[in-house]
Amino acid sequence: MTTRAGFVALIGEPNAGKSTLTNQMVGAKVSIVTHKVQTTRARIRGVALEGDSQIVFVDTPGLFRPRRRLDRAMVAAAWGGAADADIIVLMVEAHRGITQGVETILERLEEISTGRKIALAINKIDRVKSEALLALTKDLNERFSFAETFMISAEKGHGCDTLRKWLAEELPEGPWLYPEDQIADLPMRMIAAEMTREKLTLRLHQELPYQLTVETESWEERKDGSARVDQIIYVMRDGHKGIVLGNRGETIKAVSKAAREELSEFLGRKVHLFLQVKVRPNWLDEKERYSEMGLDFSDGNA
Fold it and tell me: Which H or E run contains 193?
């Protein structure tokens, strides 16, 4: 039996559906998914099996024009994930077409295309008519020589099986990189922090989700099989702390409940989750915060 294994980097603009596709391919939720852009910060690896192939999906942060240190570190992580991959899949939203951001990505792809296959996945195909899809496919393939083009709906799963089978066949021969039952290459502490951050992002509005971060401070395994998890939510201002706590603590209670339930389901056992909110005005410039997020602090330099 010949086994195959390798890394597939999903790249594209924020909200292109990279996290949704990662979760769809893995068959479990390993990546944060919200309606807000720029929610994926680190490179998140989700592991999927297809026949004798093990496909390691690298869900990268969206590629956009960075303004802050965190933005620059995220964009560097995205291109780093692409440069390290065996196959790159560019995801483009069908209804948005070739934006300025997509054009910038296409230019950069030329630089890293040597020695690896690059496929195109046009996502959210249910939002446009077939004529528009065909025109977009033709236009994109004239601008870049893609190895293959796929029409998909990451959310509904349309076309995802075809994409997964193609990827499985194109990966290099070699032993599997992870145990058969492993679905993510992330420390459990980070997965837990991401779950809480997702719940906060869904509850809060405007800029605030980008001004906060969540870290798992301690993880204690208990004799009864449950786990106690203590997390800190760092915010930049006192006013932000009040928003996260909510009226009479309602927001933090709702976030804690939703995150605890999801984490318990993910682990298949009871979890006791305790959240604390701390004001840290300069967390965006602290090296330790980046390490916790799985980002390289030095990548944030201009």
Answer: helix 188-203
**What range does the domain containing 192 cover?**
188-300
Q: Is 238 labelled as part of a ligand binding site?
A: no
Q: Is 113 annotated as a binding residue?
A: no
Q: Would you say the pTM of this structure is higher than 0.85?
A: yes
Same domain for 96 and 158?
A: yes
Q: Please tell me whether residues 215 and 141 are part of one structural domain.
A: no
Q: Is 281 annotated as a binding residue?
A: no
> Does 123 count as an annotated binding residue?
yes
Is 49 assigned to a binding site?
Answer: no
Residue 62 annotated as lining a ligand binding site = yes
124 among the known binding-site residues?
A: yes
Torsional class of 3: left (φ above 0), alpha (ψ -120 to 50), beta (otherwise): beta
Could you read off the pLDDT tens digit of each residue along the chain, which spans 302 residues? 799 999 999 999 999 999 999 999 999 888 888 777 778 888 889 999 999 999 999 999 889 888 889 999 999 999 999 999 999 999 999 999 999 999 999 999 988 888 899 999 999 999 999 999 999 999 999 999 999 999 999 999 999 999 999 999 999 999 999 999 898 888 889 999 999 999 999 888 766 778 899 999 999 999 999 999 999 999 999 999 999 999 999 999 999 999 999 999 999 999 999 999 999 999 999 999 998 888 899 988 74
Q: Is 264 annotated as a binding residue?
A: no
CA atoms within 13 A on the CB side of 228: 6
